[in-house]
Design a protein that fits this description.
This protein is of the alpha+beta class. It is built from nine helices and 14 strands. It catalyses: biotin + L-lysyl-[protein] + ATP = N(6)-biotinyl-L-lysyl-[protein] + AMP + diphosphate + H(+).
């Protein structure tokens, strides 16, 4: 009920009377008063005026189950929500829930990770109180060879959500990072449990540097945050909900089409690799070319001096002299 009352307060154009809340949830004035006090204790500034009701004056940058739920407008993405103040890795927890039969669209959010995961076994820096750590569990009815495209679906959805909410020029670095001013602000890790011809579940983890104000020395040249680049604080709960809303839309378009054709052009518009030099890493045969964007299967199209074009899979490409962290 707390998430629903918070949502009502947020969406109200003026004061929301205690009686309106009582009628909406069939509870007593005392029950409403207790929820309002709980919200105040969590940092919400709520003005109470006799004969008028309640009005939110200011919201904290709170990330918890109620805060995220109060912003969610999705049909399924994130509606089954698990929040951990501290955990090892949201991907690990989402995979556990997947093994236990959790529903498609289950979202795991954490305030802090002790063993955050990056690609190729790397760790993801996960300090408390400033960034977004979340993983979504999916049960797609797709052949396993299409699962890698889900990483690109999430990258595009997250970029759109950031562009809409923060109005800041985020770009995609194919296939699984978001960058700002040549520095990384977001990483995505997709893991899958599958049989030869059947996907049991897919987990997509995403970490976003939101309100981080400083980084350890070893990361300061390669990482940045939305707050450092914009100079303004980010409402993390609202951004989480925004990513889920955009992801739900993009995922459904992807499933209907069976590929990335519904938004490949939009993806390429914000693909920082596009038109840039890349180096193809293949044992015994490394070569340079120019990126021409992705195809409908999510592969990077690389054009060579001899006029030929090659579709390259993730893990085979390096970007030369473009990103500080590559």
């Amino acid at each position: 009920m707390k998430a629903e009352i918070l949502k009502m307060l947020r969406e109200s154009e003026g004061y929301l009377s205690g009686q309106q809340i009582c009628d909406a949830f069939q509870v007593s004035r005392t029950a409403v008063w207790k929820v309002i006090n709980q919200l105040k204790e969590e940092g919400y500034q709520i003005e109470a005026v006799r004969n008028k009701g309640y009005r939110i004056v200011d919201c904290p940058d709170a990330v918890n189950k109620e805060a995220v739920k109060s912003y969610l407008k999705t049909a399924w993405a994130g509606q089954n929500l698990f929040y951990y103040e501290e955990t090892d890795s949201t991907n690990t927890q989402a995979k556990r829930l997947g093994e236990e039969g959790a529903a498609h669209g289950t979202l795991v959010v954490a305030g802090q990770q002790n063993a955050g995961k990056g690609r190729r076994g790397k760790s993801w820096s996960s300090p408390p109180g400033s960034s977004i750590y979340m993983s979504i569990l999916l049960r797609p009815e797709l052949p396993p060879d299409k699962a890698p495209m889900l990483t690109l679906v999430m990258a595009y959805a997250a970029a759109l959500a950031i562009l809409e909410q923060e109005d800041i020029g985020v770009k995609i670095k194919w296939p699984n990072d978001l960058v700002l001013n040549k520095k990384k602000i977001c990483g995505i890790l997709t893991e899958m449990s599958a049989e030869v011809d059947y996907i049991n579940y897919v987990v997509i983890g995403i970490g976003i540097n939101a309100n981080t104000e400083s980084f350890p020395e070893e990361l300061s040249e390669t990482a940045t945050s939305l707050r450092l680049e914009s100079g303004e604080s980010v409402c993390r709960a609202r951004l989480i909900a925004g990513v889920m809303e955009r992801f739900e839309q993009c995922y459904e378009e992807f499933v209907r089409a069976g590929d990335l054709s519904p938004f490949a052009a939009g993806y390429n518009d914000i693909l920082v690799n596009c038109g840039r030099e890349v180096r193809i890493l293949e044992p015994g045969r490394e070569r340079n070319g120019i990126s021409a964007g992705i195809d409908n299967g999510g592969r990077l199209l690389v054009e060579y001096e001899d006029g030929t074009t090659e579709a390259v899979f993730a893990g085979e490409v390096s970007v030369r002299g473009i990103y500080n962290y590559v």
